[in-house]
Every structure is written in structure tokens, then in C-alpha cells.
Amino acid sequence: MLDFAIFAVTFLLALVAAVLYLYPASRQAAGIPGITPTEEKDGNLPDIVKSGSLHEFLVNLHEGYGPVVSFWFGRRLVVSLGTVDALKQHINPNKTSDPFETMLKSLLRYQSDGGNVNENHMRKKLYESGVTNSLQSNFALLLKLSEELLDKWLSYPDSQHVPLCQHMLGFAMKSVTQMVMGSTFEDDQEVIHFQKNHGTVWSEIGKGFLDGSLDKSITRKKQYEDALMQLEYILKKIIKERKGRNFSQHVFIDSLVQGNLNDQQILEDSMIFSLASCIITAKLCTWAICFLTTSEEVQKKLYEEIDQVLGKDPITPEKIEQLRYCRQVLCETVRTAKLTPVSARLQDIEGKVDKFIIPRETLVLYALGVVLQDPSTWPLPHKFDPDRFDDESVMKTFSLLGFSGTQECPELRFAYMVTTVLLSVLVRRLHLLSVEGQVIETKYELVTSSKEEAWITVSKRY
């Protein structure tokens, strides 16, 4: 179904399935500016398709109607918030949940709910400790994998084009699988097998649900279901192996196994974290390097910080905290790339933003891609400028949006750390250069990526 499928490429599916189809509809937009349904059955879905993505649709909608807008998903009202001020008014009184978890659980047809407040708090603590402990315990591994990639790039002649997306996906898969699931993935064949299944599942989430083609193709649907089953089989096997045993290397799954979770919750949470962490890490690494190749000044400043903080020594977990400018580079990468352009919340009770009343059970979109390019919040919003994060108030705004601080999703926190280690290794030894004449077009889905392969070249610093 098209009306079910469109939001499969955003963070909305779980909320759409649970809210828009289960609660009574209203054709009244509660006085909120916006557009009327294009079609009785599909609402404004044809407009979203025509725009190319939900993000691009929301950009046009907010430009035309302001910071608080409405449109129709099928026969249901949807409200979108497109400024920091509007989001502040809505976030403060409303509980938030991880949009990746809700969206992916719906797509994977997982049934366990988020539990009560205490259970959610406990699981959040498990996630936090899982990220912290897995990064600390496997730091030497992460450094080794980064240096292996450096050696590979050092072997290339200066003029050779490097397929950045391909290399970053491979690096993310090797590092994330071992830090999340353990020594099974020291075997490159296991990584390749996981990457193949991960790619099949993730591709169908972004493609097969969008055009409804997955259900129309018996072959593709079987491939998707087989890939998901194989991923679950691997995770179940690893969970069983690590229960009640002590390993020298602590991985993310260990924190879940040691928590007060049942087997199904461990499976679901480890699946969500594995899927999301691999793709977010790959895309953050890709975009960070892309932007560095286009800004010689930023790359020079990053190199100088790395040289000053690390000297001749390798990076350590303690030294990461001192790489302040590197963190600014990554924050600006997330902002400029609009890494996750849309998230969603359910309006639990009737609410108000500005002068507008938002009815109970309304799906409220956070148009993060719109907010991250708002010139009233970000001067020269299309410029890649990490120095803007020198301002503490700017960082607070970024934290409010869920990209830093206490609201930061664990997958993104994980990706920040991995990317920091990789950049500290690469930038110290290499100049990262763009390919002349290359134009990188953007594809807005669950995580923003380039439409085609992004090519770079590298040259030795000494």
C-alpha cells in the first residue's frame, strides 16, 4: 500500500501504524496552516512523492506556510514543526522516545513495547553503559582497523580515485560488528555475510516499502525475509554463547545480556542497534571526509589540533575529550548533511505550540532537516563551518534537537567516537582531496546519503 509505504523511508512507520490507523480521524486541521488533501484516500501522499522525499516536501511546506504546518497522511492530520522555537515548545512537556527504535521495530514486526517509565530509564542506562564499555574495551581494535585503512590509502598513488562510500561502509561494518557482537566477526567472511544480509534488509526498508514492490515480488520478499532470519539467527547464537560467561573483550550485547531483559528484548535491541549503528557510522564517516575535502582551511585546523593534542602518540579514550574542534567538525557534519532529516512524536495529550492547538493522538513531525538549515538559527546555513559550535548556546540548541548531550541517541554517540578515531588516524598522515568537477547529490531517507558513489583522492603529508 502506497499510504503505508511512503513513511517507511522516514522515522514514522511505527507511529503511523500504531496511531494513524488505530485512532479516530479528523478532517479538521485545528486552524493550523497547511495544505488540503490532494486525494481523498491518500491525502497529500502524491505531493510527497512528487517532491522526491518527505524532507523535501517539508522544506517546501514550511517555506510556504511557516514554522507550524499541517498536511494529510491518508485521512489523518499530521503536524510538522520547523523551527527551534516550535520544537522547544513541544519537546519540553512531552516525553520523547528513540525514533530509530520505534521505526525499525515496526518494520521488523517486533512486538515488544517500550514499557513504563522505569523500564525505559533502565534500558537507556543499559544502552549508555553498553556504548561506553564496548568502546573502552575495544579501543585498541578500533585503532587497529583505522590504521589498516590508513595503510591501504597510503599505498595508493596520489591520482587514484578512492570510492569513499564503499570504503566507509566496509570500515563501519568491520568495526561495529566486532564491538557490538564480538570475536565472531574477526573473520572477514562473517563480516561480508553480515554486510550482505544487512544490505538486503536496509535496501528493502528504503526501497521495497516505498513503491510497494516488495510485496509484489515473491523472489525479493523471500530474499528479504531470509536475510532478516539469518541476521536473527546470528544474533541468537551470539546471545546464547555470551550468556553466563566472561569474555576478555566486553561488547555491546554483553550489557544487554547482563541487564534485566528477556531473550526477545535482547534480540530486538541488539538488532536495532546493529542495523542503525552500522549505517549511521558509515554515513557520518563518509560525510565528514566529504566536507573535509571541500574545505582546506577546516582540514588544516583539524590536523593542527590532532598534532597538538596527540603529538607522536596514538589516540586514547582520554585524549578524545581534548579533540574539541574534531567534535565541532562532526556536529557540523551532522547539521550540514542533515544526517537524520525527520523524526516523529505522538501527541499524548492535547498540546499547544504558539497559538495553535494540537489535538490528542496527532502525529507530530520534527522537521529536523528544515530546522538545521534555518538561517535565523544558523547564519549562512549551507556553509560548512565547524567554528559555529564554539558558541555554547549553539551547542545547547544542537542538544535540544537530539544530536548531542543527554538526548543524543546511542547509535549516534557510538558513531561520533568511531569517526573521531578514524579521522585522527587519517588526517594525521594524509591530505584528503576532492575530485575536480564531482557533484555529490543527496538522497534523503532514514539516514541521508549520496545518490552515487563519492570519490576522493589522497596524498601523503610527509
From TrEMBL:
Protein name from the UniProt record: Cytochrome P450 20A1 isoform X1
Family, as annotated: Belongs to the cytochrome P450 family.
Signal peptide feature range: 1-18
InterPro entries: CYP450_20A1-like, Cyt_P450, Cyt_P450_E_grp-I, Cyt_P450_sf
Keyword Lyase in annotation: no
Keyword list, A-Z: Heme, Iron, Metal-binding, Signal
A Pfam family annotated for this UniProt entry: p450
Keyword Signal: yes
A cellular component term, taken from the record's GO annotations: membrane
Residues the entry annotates as binding heme: C409
MF terms (GO), sorted A to Z: heme binding; iron ion binding; monooxygenase activity; oxidoreductase activity, acting on paired donors, with incorporation or reduction of molecular oxygen
Cofactor(s) annotated in UniProt: heme
Species assigned in the record: Puma concolor (Mountain lion)
